UniProtKB/TrEMBL annotation:
Record's keyword annotation contains Oxidoreductase: yes
Family designation: Belongs to the short-chain dehydrogenases/reductases (SDR) family.
One Gene Ontology MF term: oxidoreductase activity
Species of origin: Lipomyces starkeyi NRRL Y-11557
Protein name: NAD(P)-binding protein
Amino acid sequence: MDKVRWFFSLLSEMFPPSATFTEKDVPDVTGKVFLVTGGSSGVGLELCRILYHRGGRVIVAGRSEQAYNDAVTNIKANPAKDLKDFPKGSLEFLKLDLSNLTTIKPAAQELLAKVNRLDIAWYNAGVMTPPVGSKTAQGYELQWGTNVVAHFLLNRFLSPLQLKTAQSAPKGSVRTIWVSSSAHHFGPGPYGINFDDINYEHADKKPRSFTTYGQSKVGDVLCAYEYANLVSDKGILSLSLNPGNLKSNLQRHSGFILRHVIGRMLLYPPRLGGLTELYAGFAPEPAANKGFTYIIPWGRIGVLNKDVKIGLEQYDTGKKLWAILEKETDKYM
Ligand SMILES: NC(=O)c1ccc[n+]([C@@H]2O[C@H](COP(=O)([O-])OP(=O)(O)OC[C@H]3O[C@@H](n4cnc5c(N)ncnc54)[C@H](OP(=O)(O)O)[C@@H]3O)[C@@H](O)[C@H]2O)c1
């Protein structure tokens, strides 16, 4: 039964019904502070467009100030749907390179020095299927290091501020969102993470980069799940999501067929992915949901991959990963 449910959920992640929670449903966010990593492009850009045009203070974290400036021009010139007449918020750049852990502490310190609250953090930045063998500055497999390890470290710095924010914010409004993907269904067996050799340093044959991308997206789910265990009774809602299959810069490393043929048939406009992330941030359902929340396009509660779920519930894979990441990131604190 579980298998059948999972199969139909996966199918509906690829062919979702229309969004029901859209730009006009965002509550007043005046005075609230948001962080979006990778907010200068694709899904993150669409989310920042909505937050800005609804009046939020938006911190856009990324590695290129030029890309940020281009995004600001784009956002200001093209208001989010239905939000043209609302008072605007603000946009600020936070420089960080998730492929280099030494950049995370200074970025976090800069952020903590200028804001006194953090309502929602969307750990959205990501890289997909770079050439096999691509590595971060610290030698992590590039997708693992960028999508998982760096966001984990960033969260270590930001968690105290979100906990403080939660003390006086309305219940369920302070959220930490770890952006995953339907690719989390395709991590390595048995439970989505190759714990014996996460970076595949000792493998005779390197896996396909879609497998390591899938593993990194399982890593995002596991972080969200374990963080929820640690902080849900302290007022932070930690959840994960698949934004949907979207035409963005994420496919920059993909082959011609995927980008131009399959992409045309299966990829949707990035605004819809922004709506999935918006739902994760503001919809009431995730706050009312019992247990862990995994959101699917374009804003519904979905079903985790069954093996990933078994790993979490029966083999404590979330706790195991959390302990590994804590140990590995201690020296960058
Ligand atoms: N598009 C899809 O079909 C899809 C499907 C499922 C899940 N997702 C997930 O959705 C998220 C957003 O993806 P997207 O589709 O919007 O892709 P995108 O257009 O490529 O945006 C990704 C963002 O991440 C940033 N980024 C990458 N590496 C970085 C680094 N080392 N340091 C700082 N920022 C970095 C990129 O900045 P640069 O321009 O500097 O690289 C870019 O702003 C990702 O986590 C992705 O895995 C996307």
